Amino acid sequence: MKKGTTAINDSKMLAREWHDLDAAGIPLAPLENRIGVDPLGAGSSLTIRRGRDGMRSEIRELKDGRFAYILPVFIRRNRPGKTIIREHWLEAPWLPPNIDLLEDPRDERRRLQWYSFPGDTERFWRDKVLNHRINGGLPFGSIREGLVLGIGLRPPEEYKDRQQIEITFGILDQWDNEIVAKMQMRLSRLPARVKKAPVRTRGPLLSHLQGESAEKQIRADAHMAKK
Predict the structure, then answer these.
(1) 71 vs 99: CA distance, rounded Å
(2) Which one, of 59, 7, 64, lies nearest residue 36 by Cα?
(3) Any idea what DSSP says for residue 106?
(4) In which region does residue 53 sit, left (phi positive, over 0), alpha (psi from -120 to 50) or beta (all else)?
(5) What is the per-residue pLDDT for 1?
(6) Residue 156 domain-assigned?
(7) Domain assignment present for 90
(8) 225 falls within a domain
(9) Residue 37, pLDDT score
(10) Which residues are within 8 A (CB) of 134 and not within 5 positions of it... i.e. 6 or more apart?
């Protein structure tokens, strides 16, 4: 049995026990203190969808041949309790599906205020990016909103330019539940590069002067043959 399945079963059993005690009139801790327990199933208390800036939802080809993933995401805790987001990820519909999320550009040595993709000039203001601030507690009514930025390998050629691609966004909560949402992203490929015709570097076998000399020699040989 998978570890996540055991956690889900334990969570549901605990919720049923609390429900039975409530029905029997035995006082319990208020719902807002029952962190993460969701009797309706993992993820039912969360809204996960594409963010307001849907035009930014794009899989864009970079100059080095890799692809940048720019996905606006909105997450909200709708029910009493608290969800603790431990991990988050993006997955593509092709193989390999994994997409590497950009790391926080700010560290002990660098105090950068923006994210950027390798070899790309566009900058993303750090406060607008969700990568470094999505993990953590999400109490009732709280939200996480911003851009999730990732980078991945070239999609198979069967996926065409400007095609809408269904990408999976997922989170892992404190109960080891994987909660996923499917979102549409537009694929943007760079124009195909026109291959240049090979430049001929080798000259003709006989230059113009060589051609004239050869013609003179032929005439001289013909004249000698007539004598």
Answers:
(1) 12
(2) 7
(3) B
(4) beta
(5) 46
(6) yes
(7) yes
(8) no
(9) 56
(10) 73, 75, 85, 88, 144, 146, 148, 171
* Two tokens, residue 131: 């990568």
Where in 29-157 does DSSP place strands (E)?
46-50, 58-61, 67-77, 82-85, 87-91, 100-101, 114-116, 123-125, 136-139, 143-152
Domain count, the chain: 1
Burial of 9 (0-12, 13-18, 19+ CB in 10 A): exposed
**Any idea what DSSP says for residue 162?**
T
CB 175 within 8 A of CB 7: yes
What three-state secondary structure class fits 117? coil
Q: How many CB atoms within 10 Å of residue 55?
A: 8
Distance between CA atoms of 102 and 134, rounded to whole angstroms?
Answer: 13
Beta-ladder partners of 89 = 170
Count CB atoms within 10 A of the CB of residue 90.
Answer: 23
Is 218 a domain residue? no
Question: The tokens of 194 are what?
Answer: 């026109």
The partner residues of 150 in beta bridges, in order of sequence, read 69, 101
pTM for this predicted structure: 0.70
Structure-block tokens of residue 23:
């029905």
Please name which of 170, 103, 92, 168 lies closest in space to residue 131, comparing C-alpha atoms. 103
Q: What is the full DSSP assignment across 90-104?
A: EE-SSSS-B-EEPPP
Which residues are CB-contacts of 119 (< 8 A; sequence separation ≥ 6)? 62, 63, 64
Q: Which residues of the chain, if any, have pLDDT below 50?
A: 1-2, 32, 205-206
Q: What is the extent of the structural domain holding 148?
A: 45-188
Strand partners for 186:
58, 164
Residue type, 87: E
